[in-house]
Amino acid sequence: MDLGLEGLRVLITAGASGIGLHTARAFAAEGARVHICDIDEAAISAFRADNPDIGASLCDVADRDQVQALFDTALESLGGLDCLINNAGISGATAPVEQMDPADWDRCIAVTLTSQFNCTRLAVEPLKASANPSIINLSSAAGKFGFQFRSAYSAAKWGIVGFTKTIARELGPFGIRCNTILPGLVEGDRLTRVIAAKADALGKTYSEAETDFLAHASIKEMIDPRQLADMMLFLASPRGRTISGQAISIDADLQTLA
Question: Which SUPFAM superfamilies match (predicted)?
């Protein structure tokens, strides 16, 4: 299926690994022009070596000065912007709320939620000039359930849903559609670390904690990150032109989080 993405100008945060990496490669494979950023210098170096046709910048998206520099570079490189994908986020601390270090709370909110504001505010004007403008924000299944011992992460991911639905209403009159994706248990190193931390917090083995996570899904398997990329391709394509303000779960029908 030709999704009509040839030449689409796409900026992806946290694009050097994980979901962002799969997404960047998927858009590039469809003929889109892609620029990514990441905070991890080693990941950026590896990305540039493996993907020489995709632009890449080092950036902490929680830092507004760095985000401004990112947009200056990306907009010049891409010649404008058609799609912003706010993918950056961190797991945050695993701890009871009364034991959580306030610095850990602040950093999780800054990277996971406030970064989306930092990028979106700079994306609006160039998106207004696009014939096919969209914003895709990454939330999480933690954005619709309570998540024991992960209050900062869950608060940030719930916030993304509210942010997305609000900007969809604000930007709809300009033809800019805004959606958020709520992934479930996505395969990769990040989920491995989350499960390990939860196991430690509850005094369980890793295998026991993993079984607990999957027990709450109707389809008992982890999510392939390429499934998320496929959804983003569709949402950013002309075929998704009337899809906006939606919180789309790709989570094997999770009913709650362990």
Answer: NAD(P)-binding Rossmann-fold domains (SSF51735)
